[in-house]
Design brief:
Layout (H helix, E strand, L loop, with lengths): L1 H4 L12 E4 L13 E4 L22 E2 L18 H14 L6 E5 L6 H10 L3 E6 L2 H10 L4 E4 L5 H8 L4 E6 L3 H8 L2 E9 L18 H6 L3 E4 L9 H13 L7 E5 L4 H9 L6 E5 L1
Parallel strand pairs: 4-5, 4-7, 5-6, 7-8, 8-9, 10-11
Antiparallel strand pairs: 1-2, 2-3
Helix pairs in contact: 2-3, 2-8
Length: 285
C-alpha cells in the first residue's frame, strides 16, 4: 500500500469505496434516499457532483435493486468492483476451459474467493492458496475449492505436484513474489496468467528484488497479462448481474469481515493488510 499512500498529501482523505445514502441532491440523475457506491474515502459525509473521476470511473454508481435478503454492502464486494475483478479477470484473460487446473493466490480474499468459485462453475480443478487452516477449511468445505495450500506452513512446490500432477493451466495472481515464481515453474504449455495484484510487496519500504521468471514464461510460451478492472467499464453491469444470478442459484457464496464504527477504520485496514479478513473487509458506520 505504500505505493498508493505515497501519492497522498498530508491532510488528504484516505482512499476507500463506500455505500452511501443520498440525503440531498441538486443533480437530476440522483434522488434523495437512493443508495450509491463511490470512491468517497474515509469520511462520514461527502459532497459529490456525481461526474466521472479522472480515472474514468463514475463519481457515483446507483446501486441496482438487490433482493431483500442480500445486504447493500455486497456492492463493495462480490456485487461490485472485487466481484467484477474476479469475473472479467478470470474469464477474459485466463479464459478457463472445462477440465483445466486453476490456481488462485490470495484465495480467501474478496477477489480470490470469487475467482475460485467461478472457476468451479466453468468446470475447472481449483487450488486455493491462503495463509491459515481456517481459511482453507472455508475454501474447500464451503466454497467448493478442490484443494488448499497454506503458504505459511506447507511446502508449496510439493503440494502443487500433489494437487496438480498434470500441471497448471490458469493462474490468477494476487500476490506476486516468490510464490508466483514457484507456481510459474508448474505451468503447462500455453498457460495463462492474470496478474491482479502484488500483496506480498505492498508494504515493503524498498522495491523487492525481482525473481527471474523469464525462463518458464519463454519455455512454456505463457501468456501473462496485468489488468485493471476499469477496462470493462462498458460491461460493468454484465458482471454484477451474472454474479447475482449465480448467488441466487447457490453457485456463488460470500463472506464479509465486518468491523463496527468509524473509529475502528484504521484497525480494520491494518488487519486486512495482515490477512486478518476472510472475504471482503467492511466497516459499518
Amino acid at each position: 500500500m505504500r505505493a498508493h499512500a505515497s501519492k497522498l498529501q498530508p491532510g488528504s482523505t484516505f482512499l476507500g469505496s463506500q455505500v452511501a445514502r443520498i440525503i440531498e441532491s441538486k443533480n437530476p440523475k440522483y434522488s434523495p434516499g437512493q443508495y450509491v457506491v463511490g470512491e468517497f474515502g474515509w469520511r462520514t459525509h461527502t459532497v459529490s457532483t456525481g461526474e466521472r473521476l479522472p480515472n474514468g470511473f463514475p463519481g457515483a454508481w446507483i446501486i441496482p435493486d438487490f433482493p431483500k435478503d442480500l445486504p447493500l454492502s455486497l456492492a463493495l464486494g462480490i456485487l461490485g468492483m472485487p466481484g467484477n475483478t474476479a469475473y472479467f479477470g478470470l474469464l477474459e484473460i485466463c479464459q478457463p476451459k472445462p477440465g483445466e487446473t486453476l490456481i488462485v493466490t490470495g484465495a480467501a480474499g474478496a477477489v480470490g474467493s470469487v475467482v475460485g468459485q467461478i472457476g468451479k462453475i466453468k468446470g475447472c480443478h481449483v487450488i486455493g492458496v491462503a495463509g491459515s487452516e481456517e481459511k482453507g477449511k472455508w475454501l474447500v468445505d464451503e466454497l467448493g475449492f478442490d484443494h488448499f495450500i497454506n503458504y505459511k506452513t506447507d511446502d508449496i512446490t510439493k503440494k502443487i505436484k500433489e494437487y496438480a500432477p498434470n500441471g497448471i493451466d490458469c493462474y490468477f495472481d494476487n500476490v506476486g513474489g516468490e510464490i508466483t515464481s514457484m507456481i510459474l515453474c508448474h505451468m503447462n504449455h500455453f498457460g495463462r496468467i492474470a496478474v491482479c495484484g502484488g500483496i506480498s510487496g505492498y508494504n515493503e519500504k524498498d522495491i523487492p528484488k525481482v525473481t527471474m521468471i523469464q525462463y518458464p514464461v519463454v519455455i512454456n510460451e505463457l501468456k501473462m497479462e496485468g489488468f485493471i478492472v476499469h477496462r470493462w467499464l462498458d460491461r460493468w453491469f454484465e458482471g454484477i448481474e451474472q454474479n447475482m444470478k449465480w448467488i441466487q442459484e447457490g453457485k456463488l457464496k460470500y463472506r464479509e469481515t465486518v468491523t463496527e464504527g468509524f473509529e475502528n477504520m484504521f484497525k480494520a485496514f491494518t488487519d486486512m493488510l495482515r490477512g486478518g479478513n476472510t472475504g471482503k473487509a467492511i466497516v459499518k458506520l
